């Protein structure tokens, strides 16, 4: 089971704490963690998962060996800029979004486009042109709920 | 000047009419039109632009010669699925979004991630986790306003 | 009909002359020319084709607006490094190789992998591990023969 | 240290044996193995490396969960066709080529284009237009030599 965790490369303490805990719980659940391999939420989830002995794969937008966060088991350097986001999503059985940014929203949207389940922990929300919520994303209250939902969705 | 027009591959008559008119007006303004080269909004904008003698480039997610809409001057077959969206955006000086879908939202998000101006004509809207609108997209009332805004933004 | 012309970004006068003539003849034959949109062979084929009023699409590895050669009708900025080569090939009905380089050889190889016809004008050659030539590429003696062969192959 | 092993998806017993042994020796040397995650040489190297307890990452051209070989620690589904080859190469500190095919040659060429060291075990060879060998690839006599050379090159 491979679960991608997506979030901004600059984030606050709350999101970093959530991401670390999400990583830890995914590793304990035996899931392989996929992330962008950079800063912010990406670094926090890698740290949490690796602290629990989990397998963590970073999928980078560039080929810069010096821009990679700690805690990764292996790194795929796509050298493809934001097209990397599509690869992360295509590789995931479920996606957990932690916090919001434009890059993160593109990953949420690509996941819904492919039918990959998305669990959101403090992520951005989407309205149609009439102001009605666009469904398809499950909101979680905390990391434990996010991981439980993602693992359940990924298994089905 | 290259302007991408993005929108769902299945759309209603209102959006198709808007897209056709956006294509016509972009061609008359001398802009090269980039689109996904498929159905719905993509086909309508290609039809409108080609009817006005404009240059229209389709950027496809597959390599299927039979899935291409009419009206394209040339077609780039990326064979890369939704990563195609990142290429469309990286190639555009401005983006006009017509209508909403998950794929379209990924393009809007990638454009804002890169700092490419986005003009929205009936597109989806974005709220942060607290329910506040996330800025960065300009709403247009009709095709004429959308094209005028996009041309102005692309030129700066 | 879309024909890609591939060759090194730094080339000598002979290859530049061949590429210019290939571009001119492709435009006169009514083919759309695809190229990498950079220097050397790419710039020469774009110049030749545009001088003859042809449609020329540049497919770039980066998103640098200042690195683009003259003579292009439109430019697709993939921002994907050498993965751009796969897009050029997937978009072509036939490929003309002018001269040799590692990047050019990757395009020749990707074309043969996909079954896209390749015409070589001064390109590198390939031997198997036993030293026997690996077929699949047609050698041309001059630009006129290269274009005639490519147009014929692309039409079948 | 990440080392990519490239080779045809259909191969004979000799190449499969070489690839298995290359995988085993890379794992014993502590290198992470990258491969295409499919049949032939890809499956053999994954089997050899995983038998020795190594970390093996498959980088796939599609998103087909059923087309993946055994022995992979994690799989990145690029859904990008042959553009996957560029990602494999961009992620590698050195490349070992086992046997020859057009796809494999594209990887060899992309590696040389980027300056990534290439060790060849029964791979295709390249001549310029005058019939002279084009350098840049080191020939190995057996798996032990290939791995020793690749590990040395990757470390420098």
UniProtKB/TrEMBL annotation, chains A, B, C, D:
Protein name in the entry: Dethiobiotin synthetase
Record-linked PANTHER family: CYTOKININ RIBOSIDE 5'-MONOPHOSPHATE PHOSPHORIBOHYDROLASE, LYSINE DECARBOXYLASE-LIKE PROTEIN
Top-rank lineage group of the source organism: Bacteria
Pfam families assigned to the protein according to its UniProt record, in alphabetical order: LDcluster4
Gene Ontology CC annotation, any one: cytosol
């Amino acid at each position: 089971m491979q679960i991608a965790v997506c979030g901004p490369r600059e984030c606050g303490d709350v999101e970093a704490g959530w991401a670390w805990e999400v990583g830890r719980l995914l590793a304990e659940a035996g899931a392989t963690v996929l992330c962008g391999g950079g800063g912010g939420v990406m670094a926090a989830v890698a740290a949490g998962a690796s602290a629990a002995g989990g397998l963590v794969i970073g999928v980078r937008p560039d080929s810069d060996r010096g821009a990679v966060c700690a805690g990764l088991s292996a790194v795929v350097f796509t050298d493809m800029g934001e097209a990397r986001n599509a690869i992360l999503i295509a590789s995931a059985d479920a996606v957990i979004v932690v916090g919001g940014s434009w890059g993160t929203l593109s990953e949420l949207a690509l996941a819904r486009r492919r039918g990959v389940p998305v669990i959101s922990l403090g992520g951005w929300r989407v309205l149609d042109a009439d102001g009605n919520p666009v469904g398809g994303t499950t909101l979680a209250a905390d990391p434990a709920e996010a991981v439980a939902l993602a693992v359940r969705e990924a298994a089905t």
